[in-house]
Amino acid sequence: MGIRKKNKNPPILSHDFIIQNHADIVSCIALLFVVGLLFEVTSHVAGLFITVQHNVTISTNAAFPEGPEELAVNYFHHGPKDMATVFFYMLIAIIFHAVIQECLLDKINRKMHLSKIKHTKFDESGQLSAFYLLSCGWGTSILFSENLLSSPVNLWEGYPHTLMPFQMKFFYIWQLAYWFHALPELYFQKTKNEDVPRQLLYISLYLVHIGGAYVLNLNRLGLVLMVLHYYVELLFHVSRLIYFSNENHQAGFAVWAVLFVIGRLLTLSLSVLTVGFGLAGAEQQGPYLATGNFNMPLIRVTVLGGICTTQAFMVWKFINFQLRRWREFQQQLRRPAASKSRSRRDRGGVNGVNGALGSGPDSPRTRKEKSS
């Protein structure tokens, strides 16, 4: 995507008008929901979009010096009202995208003078780096607060994990909202027709895997795999940003290549361990839709098949990427050799090595005419 040049007076409600002002339009729509919270008549509807839905209050007893006291803890589960919340935060993601693009990436692009192709890749990596950085920090804090990294057994013990703390529920809402926002961004960013299928496949894989983990109550496994994948992707896009600023800095890609392979192995290992062994050996076998238990052979095979297929696809893309970089490196090695041989031929032509055109030291000596 190149630097957007705004026309002075685009026709109202035309494509150019919507694309140039989409952030302002979306901000006004989001502001309507926020203003709706101020009035009693509309607060219930506005709260449906803004606040996290499907909460459950569980009472627990805790011992205090004064005596036992009952505490109320709020947990959340998924439900149909989440679609409204995802829609609102999709609007926030569009605003978030526009702010990063206009306030940061466009200013950097003007100074770097990149080609159109590199410009598009730079914007893509800049947007995803910001998102992955936020998601990695947020997801890691949830993993430590919920003590999910202490033992792999925590990934399947007590399944179905229908109840989630607020941070985990909101994390999934934000993830779904961000990847749904990427669909209208294809229009807002004027994505080329040949790039749309690749982007749609990319977005669909995220939505299917994140949504599947959320709906099937595999939120613990999904969170671990998401954070693991995001760390690897963050390194790749940061390395690409550094490469565009200075093409001599390519060490980040080597580190990313190693971590990519490790990430794929860990993803497959944790998935097989959790779904193939942990859930298969659990006492509660499903399906029981009322309790959210989807632990049955067909679903387990489908989940594992989807994960393995996606990992195989990513490895195939990774191999193609490495082969392309290797071919580019080989071409760069051939260019100096070709330029040296060309310079030798040019010098030979000037000095008359292949003919008697020159008068250099390698040219045949011309006969002096006898003076009469």
Name the structural class.
mainly alpha
| Tally of helical segments | 10
How much is the radius of gyration in Å? 30 Å
The proportion of strand residues reads 5-15%
User: Major sheet, described briefly?
Assistant: 2 strands, antiparallel
Q: How do the strands line up in the largest sheet?
A: 1-2
Q: In terms of quaternary structure, what is this? A: single chain
Instruction: Give the helices and strands as they follow along the chain.
Output: HHHEEHHHHHHH
Query: In angstroms, what separates the terminal alpha carbons?
Result: 78 Å
The outline comes out as: globular
Poorly predicted runs of 5 or more residues: 349-372
Fraction of residues in H or I helices: 55-70%
Arithmetic mean pLDDT: 86
Number of strands: 2
Membrane topology: Multi-pass membrane protein
Keywords: Endoplasmic reticulum, Membrane, Protein transport, Translocation, Transmembrane, Transmembrane helix, Transport
Domain TLC: 120-329
Family: Belongs to the TRAM family.
